[in-house]
Specification:
Elements lengths: L1 H7 L3 E5 L18 H4 L19 E2 L2 E2 L7 H8 L4 E2 L5 E3 L7 H8 L9 H4 L6 H11 L6 H6 L18 H6 L2 H10 L5 H22 L1
Parallel strand pairs: 1-4
Antiparallel strand pairs: 1-5, 2-3
Length: about 210
C-alpha cells in the first residue's frame, strides 16, 4: 500500500479545516511528503502524539505548534500554504468529486488496453466470473499444462474427459464432456449458439496471443 500511495502523491491534495482528519506526522500533506519524511532526524514521533491531527495545531490565522517543535520546523510550516476547505480532507487532482474509477484509470494509465477488455469487464459483470474469465484469457487457470510450466508434475490428461491434454483451450471449447455438462446445466441453450460463443472466445484467445507476441 505504501508503494501505491507514493505513486499518487503528486496528484492528490489535502484540504484543511477544523474537522480535518489528516495525520500530522504520517500523511503526505507537506509538499507531497509526510512531516516525518521531510524532517527525518527531528524525532518528532517522540515529541508529538502519534495520533495527532493537522487540525490540532491549525488556527484561522496560522499554526499553533507545541513548544517542543524546533524553530526550523516551525518556520517551514509557517511558509507552507495550505488549502482552506470547508468540506473534505483529501481531493483527487482538481476534482472535489473523485471516485474509485479515477484512481483505477490513473493506476493503470501506462498499460495497453487489450482487444478483449469488454468481454471481461462489461457493464453487468460479476467480479467472480470476470476474474476467472480474465485468468483463462491470460492462461492463469491451474490446468495441467500451466502446472507443468511451474515444474508441478501432475497427470497431463484432461480431468474431465481423460482423453486429451488438459489445457485452457481444451477445457473451454474442445472438451466434449465439459460441453455436455454445459448443455445439461443450460438446456435452453442450443448447441449452435454455444458453439458460436466458444468460436468468438477462440477468436479472442487468438487476439490475445498475437497481442502478447
Amino acid at each position: 500500500m505504501g508503494r501505491v500511495a507514493l505513486q499518487i502523491n503528486s496528484i492528490i491534495r489535502f484540504g484543511f479545516n477544523r474537522n480535518s482528519i489528516t495525520s500530522f506526522l504520517w500523511d503526505p500533506w507537506l509538499f507531497g511528503k509526510s512531516v516525518m519524511t521531510v524532517f527525518p532526524s527531528s524525532n518528532l514521533d517522540s515529541l508529538i502524539p502519534l495520533h495527532a491531527m493537522v487540525s490540532d495545531y491549525l488556527r484561522d490565522d496560522g499554526w499553533l505548534l507545541p513548544a517542543v517543535v524546533s524553530d526550523t520546523i516551525a518556520i517551514s510550516l509557517q511558509h507552507f500554504k495550505f488549502n482552506q476547505e470547508t468540506n473534505g480532507t483529501l481531493f483527487w487532482q482538481d476534482s472535489n468529486k473523485a471516485c474509485f474509477s479515477s484512481f483505477i484509470k490513473y493506476y493503470h494509465r501506462e498499460e495497453a488496453k487489450v482487444d478483449w477488455y469488454n468481454l471481461v469487464w462489461h457493464k453487468h459483470f460479476a467480479v467472480k466470473y470476470s476474474f476467472y474469465t480474465w485468468l483463462a484469457i491470460n492462461n492463469g487457470l491451474k490446468t495441467a499444462e500451466e502446472l507443468l510450466k511451474r515444474t508441478i508434475r501432475v497427470p497431463q490428461s484432461c480431468s474431465l474427459c481423460f482423453v486429451h491434454s488438459e489445457t485452457t483451450g481444451h477445457l473451454l471449447y474442445e472438451c466434449d464432456y465439459a460441453f455436455s455438462v454445459l448443455q445439461n446445466l443450460i438446456p435452453m441453450v442450443i448447441k449452435t449458439a454455444v458453439e458460436a460463443k466458444l468460436a468468438n472466445w477462440k477468436h479472442t484467445e487468438n487476439l490475445r496471443i498475437s497481442w502478447a507476441g
